[in-house]
Structure formats: structure tokens, C-alpha cells
Input
Amino acid sequence: MDHHAGNAQKGLRGRALVVVVSIIAALGGLLFGYDTGIIGVALLGLARDFALNDTLKQIVTGAIILGALVGCLGTGPISDRIGRRWSIALVGLVFTIGSILSAAAPSVGVLILARFILGLSAGSATQIIPVYIAEVTPPAHRGKLVVMFQFMVVFGILVAYLTGYALGHQWRWMFALGIIPSVVLMIGMLLPESPRWLLGKNRESEALGILERVRGNREGAQQELNEIKEISAQPEGTWKDLFSSWVRPALIAGFGIAMFSQITGNNALIYYAPTILSDAGFGDSASVLAAVGGAVLINLATILGIFLVDRIGRKRFLLWMVPGSAVALFVMGALFVGGSPENAAAQWTLVGCLAIYMALNSSFGVCLWLINAEVYPLFVRGKGASVGAFSHWIFNLLMTLTTLSLISALGTSGTFWLYGLITLVALVFIVRYVPETMGRSLEEIEADLRNGTFFPARRKKVAKGAATPS
Output
């Protein structure tokens, strides 16, 4: 089957093939983003048709995340067994089934099941697609092309908000439109397999052929193949291997950055932004339109990330963006002191701060899938990416199931301030535990793990010692 996939791409070589591969694979991100964003808009109509209270709203929203937890953990072993490419095609198929069932749901129970099925594919997409792109692309372009996946996620959220605004309360059509990109994703996976996966299956000639087309020359391809062979000589790792002491720093970085991407509140506010704005005095249409503004800024921030992660680095990009999101959270909390904002100036300040927060906090989304695709050793990369995706989804589920309840318990002010404090903790974590991977091959990153120089502080200490005369 890989031979036919190769023929399908025979006319493309070098950078052109890499870009085509990454864009088609990143369609899974569009599906993920669309189904993430559309529920926030659809809830306005669903609440009327099915008489949903806050608890049911959280369950309907959270069902996709529960499915994602199952999907992200199951995809790692599957992708290690059947390959990255066919795993992505399977993601498209499951997305299609879930979209059809969501659109036709006759009851809340069926809708919850459909959202769970969509979650299976969304969780799988976040595990396998960044890994596939990272394993196919060269180090110089890996950052921007893996971030293409995140751009498609946030673009999908924008498309969802615009679709919801155009369709009003016609939530069935909102869900049905997700079928289109899912079918394209299945067709588009006539792509070359990951050369690293092929080499792990002792298919060296196929791996070399794909590397030649992706890199554009035989000499560079052979050199990279030799580097991969040095690293990939050991057999596929187990879950126990993933938790071994020398791999643990990668686990901390990948799991932690995914956790903070959620507990700082971003996806929770994306899900419930129309509801929060409606409670602040905006009408349904105005609430959706205001949320569109935030989604536009998220897209612009992600485009900025595409250009910057391979120029200034993943870590520095986070440190530039995240502090401003904390400030926006504290300001939003202040606006809700004493109740919802009542005058127009306060209401529009809320809209502006919400949009700025969503844009700046989206830097986590820009970097988390990239970091999780880069930091793990090859022999446990599929499983490691699964753990990173699991962290994202388990904390996403926690936030989704608690946000409206947290607002009821702490008030909107207290909830925003809590998210702001967590964001400050996230900054400390980034400084101490997130390494810079810009411009480094996956094999060089793995060597840091083996040498005990993965964490930034440890690498500086070793470098200082090496520079000091004995």
C-alpha cells in the first residue's frame, strides 16, 4: 500500500511534498477545532430544544472530551502497529460517523453518544497527526509545519463560530457540516508513511525512498537515515519504558505543558464564551459575534506562532505571550466584582479582555503539540505523545465539567482570578522544565535525555562545568 501512496506523490519532491503532507494531515486539526468550537454555539439552540440545565450542558460538552481520553491513549499503540498514515485515515472515518450521528440525534442520550464518538477521533488526531508531521519534516521546518496542525484547530474554531452565527439555532446543520473535511481527510491520506516508522519495521529501502523525496536529494536522505538507524536500533518500547528515569524529563515537560494549556482556562472559555457573554448582558447573536472576534485573534496569534517558533524558539514564544493572558484574566475578574458588568464600557472591555486572553493563551496550543511530538525518544514516541494528549484531554474534561459550576461557587470574578493565579504558576513551570527544541533534530533531543541534560537548568550547569578549566 505504501508503494501506491508513493506513486500518488511521485510528482512532488522536497519542500513541496513536505508542505502538502503537512496541510493534508493537519485537516484533522480543522475537524478537532470545528467540533470544539461548534458546541459553544450549538448549546444556545440545544438548550431550547432539549431543555438543558447547567449539568446537562456540561455533560454534552464534556462527552467529546471523555471520548478523546480513550482515543488518545488507544491511538499510540495502534499507530505503532499499523503506521502513522493509516491511523490518520481511521481518524477521518470515525469523525465522519460521529458527525452524521450528531446531526441526526433524536435525543440528548444519542447526542452524548455521538459526541463521545467524535471525541475518539479528536483525541486520536491530537496524538498521531503532530507525530506524523514531526517524523516526516526536516528540523529547520518542523516547528512551523507541526504548528500548522494547531492553526487548523483554531481556524476550525473560527469556522464553527461563523457557521453558528450564520445558521442561528439550526444545530443539526452545524454538526452535519463536519462531514465535509472528515471525508477530505480520508481521501487525502494517500500520503507517504513516516520513514522513522518504516525503519522501525525493518523496511529500510522504503524509508530511504521517502526521505529522498521529502529531502529532495539522496545524499541528505542517506545521512538522515543513518542517524535514525543509530537511534532506532532498540525494539519498540513498552509503557514501563516510557516511565523510566531517563525518559521522565520528557514526560514532565510534555505532560505539564499540556496540563497548563487547559487549567489556565482557555478551552473552557472557548466552550462557554457565548454563554458567559450572554450572561453579561449581550444577546445570543451578539454573544456569538463577540466570540468570533476572539477566535479571529486566536488565528492571528497562531499565524504569528508559525513564523516565530522556528525563529525565536518554542519556549521564548510562550514566555512572550503567557504573561499578558494572566493580566487579562485579572482584569476580567475585576469587571465582574459585584455582579455582571452593567454599562456598555465595562461590557466591551470584557469582550476585549476575553479576546486578548484567548489570543495570548493560545500560545500553549501553538507549542504543546509541537513539544509533545519532539521530546520523546523514538522507541516510545507514539506512547509518549499519547500521554501528552491524555494530559490535554483529562484536564480539558476537568475544566469543562467544572467551569459553570465553579462560576456558581466562586462567582465569575473568583473563577477568573483563580485561572490567573494558575497562569502565573505555568510561567514558573515553563522556565524550569521546558527545554528549547528549536532547530535541533529529534535524535539530538533524544541524546540530551540520555545524557541527563534535557532540563534547561541541568544543561546550563553542565555547560558551565565544561567551560571551567579543571
In short: The domain at 2-193+234-457 is CATH 1.20.1250.20 (Growth Hormone; Chain: A;). The chain has one domain: 2-193+234-457. The mean pLDDT is 81. Residues 138 and 215 are 7 Å apart (CA to CA).
